[in-house]
Design a protein that fits this description.
Strand 3, helix 2 and strand 4 form a beta-alpha-beta unit. With 108 residues, the protein is α/β, with parallel strands linked by helices. The protein contains four helices and four strands. The two termini are 20 Å apart. Helix 1 runs parallel beside helix 2. It is globular and about 30 Å long. It has one domain: Transcription Regulator spoIIAA, CATH 3.30.750.
Length: 108
Amino acid sequence: MSSANLEALGGERYRVSGVLDARTAPLLLEQSDERFSSAQGASIHVDFDQVTDSDSAGLALLLEWLRIARQRQQTLHFANLPAQLAALARISEVEELVLEDPNSCKDS
């Protein structure tokens, strides 16, 4: 059974841990709604260093976060994306949306 968590680190910084898949992505989206909405107009930083596995549902989650942030006039910054997730972004041709720096991905 997979699990994931969105941890608030303070100062509009968050850390995602666990597995990003079809089971956990909706739960993380729900957790993020309340946490990210309180940062109206802010720049939000999300660290993925503790993510152990991801699939296309993880990429869909990132894209949904970006869509919602745009509606709220927020900016999202993703750090330490797992190589697997970065590869999915490249294949899906959305790399420029989720990767500020292609070298910011962690190795799997």
